Structure formats: C-alpha cells, structure tokens
Automatic annotation (TrEMBL):
<dbReference type="InterPro" id="IPR008979">
    <property type="entry name" value="Galactose-bd-like_sf"/>
</dbReference>
<feature type="signal peptide">
    <location>
        <begin position="1"/>
        <end position="19"/>
    </location>
</feature>
<feature type="domain" description="F5/8 type C">
    <location>
        <begin position="373"/>
        <end position="520"/>
    </location>
</feature>
<protein>
    <submittedName>
        <fullName>F5/8 type C domain-containing protein</fullName>
    </submittedName>
</protein>
<keyword id="KW-0732">Signal</keyword>
<dbReference type="InterPro" id="IPR000421">
    <property type="entry name" value="FA58C"/>
</dbReference>
<dbReference type="Pfam" id="PF00754">
    <property type="entry name" value="F5_F8_type_C"/>
</dbReference>
Length: 523
C-alpha cells in the first residue's frame, strides 16, 4: 500500500470516528440528532409538551413512555367528544411517532431547586425559563399552548404548580405514574385517576376551557364533566366533555389543520337586543349582537351560588351551546329540569361569544331562584337613548393609569368604565356624578352595570332634579357584586331631567368606586 492510499484511509477513518460537530468548521447545530423516533403531525399547530426538572431532581424513570401513552389516550378522549357533539374528527395536535407510540416531549432542566418552583409562587419562575428556552430554540415551539409537566419525587413535599394559567397549564409526573393503573383499585389506581385525571382537567384550562358541570340528563347518560369534577372520575368512571367545551375547542389553535394569522385577536361583540323570560319551565334567552367578528357559537353558563359564583366556584355551572342564527342573532331555551341544583340562590347567566379565531368573551347577567322558580329580571327595559346625555359634574376620574373617565358610563359599552382617581391623591367616599339627560323624561327605573374589575359599587343614593338646583332623594340602594345590568324599579313613575348618584361604599371594601354603564328606562 503506497503512502498516499494510507493517508486517505486515515482521513476517512477520522471522519467516521468523530461526531460531525467535532470536525473543525462544522457547527454543532447542523448535526442531525436521531433519537430513534420520527415525530409527525397533520395539524397546523401542536400542543407543546414540556417535562420540567428542577436542578435538585432527576427525571423519573421511563417518563417518555408513560407520558406519551397517557397523552395519546387523552388525545383520543378529546377527539371522541369533539366527534360526538358534531365538530368533526379532530383533537389537539401532537407531534408523535404513531408506530412507536411516543410523542415529542421537550425536556427542560431548571436552573433552580424545587423550592423555587412551588405551587403558590413558583409558576412564574418556570414560565420564565421555558420562555427563555423557546427563545433560544424557536423551532421547538409549535403553538401558543403549552402543557408543563413538573417532575416530582414526593407529591406532597415538592408542592409543584398544578393549575391552568392562561394558555399554559401545569400538571405533574410522580415516580411510576402510569396509565395502566387507571381504573384499578388500591392506592396506585386512586393516585392515577387523581393526577392523570387532574392533568386532563388542567389541560382543558390550558386549551381555554372554563369550569362547568354539564346538564343533569347528560350527567346521567355520560357521567361526570371533565371540567367539573372530572379529575376524580377520569379513567375510573364515565367522564365526558360538554358541548360548550367542544364549541370552544372547535376554534382552538391546536385543533386546527389550517394556518391563520389572527389567532386570539381581540374582538368586541356587543349585545344590542336581549329578551329573557321564564315560561313553561324554561329559561328562554334570545337577542342580537354586533361587532362579533366571526362568531360561530354562543355558550350559556348558569352558575348558582350554592358553592359560590365564578372563579374556582363554578364547577357546577349548567351549560348550553348553540350556533348563531343568521349573522347576528341567538336563541336558547334552557329547561330548569336540567339544573342539578334549584335551591333558592343568586345565579349568574354568562353568555359567551366564541369566535373562529379562538377568542371568546363572557357577558354576565344576574338572576335568582325563589321558591323553586327563576326570577328573570334582565333583558331590554326600553331604555332611553343616551346619545345627547352628558355628565355635568363628578367627584373624580382616573385617566392617567387607565381609561376610567366618567363619560364611559354613557358610551353603551360595558367593557369600559368610570373609575375614581387612584393614581395619586385618591379621594375616599362619598364619590358622585351628575347626568343631564337633555330633557325631562318620565322614568320607571334605572339600570346599573358593574364593571368587570375591582371596587364595584355597593351602597349608593339616587337623587333627581328638573333644574339641577333643587334635588329630591329617591332612596338608598345596594348593588350586587355581579356582572350584567342590575335593575332598580321606582315605586312610582318619576319625571326629571337630571339625576345624581352618590356612592358611599364598594363591594370589596376599598375606597374607590367604578361603574360600567347607567341607564334610565320607561316600561
């Protein structure tokens, strides 16, 4: 063998013995890493699945197989109910190797120990590091929705985040968590149902789903709503997604097989007409709306105060979902027999507009059940036009840190509000405003719409005048800490040109006041 041939063989041997990244001039990022799995998806966007390990932990054994199997089952579960309710053969997208039953999981090693990723205050630290990872590896992020699975060794001691947080959601993986234990008896089965079921429930929140408990007949037929108490039944007893859940998911980014550029863009639907009544055992609600973009479904949630209203107290909310009628109308008839609870409590009806870009907006209305019958006191009240009305006097308004100008109470938009000054030199009670209606009008009552934030009006006094000089006290009134218009009926019809509202307390006990809308109506 001549000298030139030997040198050539040595060079070939060197190139094959070294990794490509070890060869001078070849960047590491160009080296393809073959994990043995080849992930594909026919969805335009896919759920990001992150396995997060604190610096003082090591990954739990066999987590890739275990998490893959439970997520693939979860994908089938979500898809089953999408198809059942008529939304087609779709579920959340996953990058997966179907033949080997594995999904793509992004493993991220935390910079801090577990104490910095606690349930109460550690979610922000986790999200910060995940954002940093995706910023450095943009190709790894395939949608705006991320499931974060926290690696724990001891569920109670490690106290990892376990909840939804916007389009992120947290769950956990403990040693040995396995889908094979779902539905079995004993401690392993109980743990699997609670934590795997909990993962699927929190995933729902990360996919934009609110709590709801389903209709009584659906619960009898299908079991427990996943977004109700489904984290304690999943895999052990029948569990399902409600139609309202699937109406939201139908517009979700990771359920889409087509791309669009306006995912979750703001939209501002406004209800322009609303009729509501209780008759023949049904709560009947109909109306029209404008500014709804490409709304395709309207959901209705009846949330009773047996366990509290809103927030984390709406697990028992009874839902309906309907397609819009034409381009701007809706109608629903909700039998009281479908309510799991019909005790005498305050209730809130939330009307949710679902847009095709994934956005949704709730418009709340209060009512109550008395002696077993709903008392419906919302809906159009023949309000006077406010086009020429003016606020002629007010105590203060916040216009520096937010749009809290007092004129917002007359703009016919419940998403804007008057807020008393809080940026500097914040005044305390009483707060007030005076409205000039431009002409003397005969009135049977007032409507007040609380804003969606803090410092809602609680106690107030209403006065009227024909000349803005002499004032008559109509009475003292109390508003509820709920959304939607609240109606105050006058004991007798009253004619006036001006009215004054003096606020003396807020529902949250703070020194400020706020109000979204005020109106005057005649029956």
């Amino acid at each position: 063998m001549n000298k030139q041939t030997c040198l050539l063989l040595l060079l070939v041997a060197f190139l094959f013995a070294c990794k490509k990244s070890d060869v001078p001039g070849v960047p590491t990022e160009e080296v393809p890493v073959d994990t043995g799995y080849h992930y594909k998806s026919d969805y335009a966007y896919n759920l990001n699945v992150v396995y997060f390990i604190a610096s003082d932990k090591t990954a739990n054994d066999d987590y890739h197989r275990r998490i893959s199997e439970l997520m693939l089952q979860g994908q089938d579960f979500y898809g089953k109910w999408m198809k059942h309710w008529g939304f087609g053969d779709k579920s959340f997208g996953l990058l997966k190797d179907a033949a080997k039953k594995r999904i793509k999981i992004v493993e991220i090693k935390g910079k801090l120990d577990q104490s910095n990723y606690s349930y109460d205050s550690g979610a922000g630290n986790v999200l910060k590091e995940i954002d940093e990872y995706f910023a450095a590896h943009p190709g790894e992020k395939t949608s705006g929705h991320t499931l974060i699975i926290m690696c724990v060794k001891d569920i109670q001691a490690d106290k990892a985040p376990f909840y939804g947080l916007g389009r992120n959601c947290f769950a956990l993986d403990y040693p040995g968590m396995d889908i094979k234990d779902l539905g079995t008896t004993g401690p392993a089965g109980a743990a699997a149902t609670g934590w795997i079921g909990g993962l699927m429930h929190e995933l729902g929140h990360g996919l934009n789903l609110p709590h709801n408990g389903g209709q009584k007949s659906e619960n009898a037929q299908f079991g427990t709503s996943l977004m109700g108490a489904g984290n304690s039944s999943y895999g052990k007893s029948p569990t399902y997604l409600t139609k309202a859940d699937c109406a939201i998911l139908n517009n979700n980014q990771v359920f889409s097989k087509v791309t669009r550029t306006d995912w979750y863009a703001d939209f501002t639907p406004v209800i322009t007409r609303l009729n509501a009544k209780y008759e023949s055992g049904n709560i009947v609600v109909s109306g029209r709306f404008s500014g709804g973009g490409t709304v395709n479904y309207i959901n209705f949630y009846n949330d009773g105060n047996k366990n509290g209203i809103g927030g984390n107290k709406d697990y028992d909310a009874v839902q309906w979902a309907t397609q819009k009628i034409g381009v701007d109308s809706f109608y629903v008839s909700m039998p009281l027999t479908e309510f799991s609870n019909t005790e005498d409590y305050p209730y809130e009806l939330r009307i949710m507009f679902c847009d095709q870009n994934g956005s949704w907006l709730n418009v709340p209305y209060p009512y109550e059940i008395k002696n077993g019958n709903p008392v419906i006191d919302f809906g159009d009240k023949n309000e006077y036009s406010k086009t020429n009305w003016q606020v002629t006097e007010f105590s203060s308004e916040e216009t520096v840190e937010e749009d809290g100008k007092v004129s917002n109470i007359l703009d016919k938009n419940s998403s804007t509000a008057w807020v008393t000054r809080w940026n500097t030199n914040a005044p305390t009670f009483p707060h007030h405003f005076v409205v000039n209606m431009g002409q003397a009008l005969a009135a049977d009552g007032f409507t007040f719409t609380q804003r969606g934030g803090s410092s809602k009006i609680k106690d107030m006094q209403i006065l009227t005048s024909t000349d803005n000089v002499s004032w008559t006290v109509l009475g003292n009134y109390v508003l509820k800490d709920v959304g939607g218009p609240q109606v105050i009926y006058l004991p007798a019809q009253k004619t006036f040109k001006y009215f004054k509202v003096i606020v003396t307390s807020a529902t949250d006990g703070r020194q400020y006041a706020s109000l979204a809308e005020v109106g005057v109506f005649r029956n």
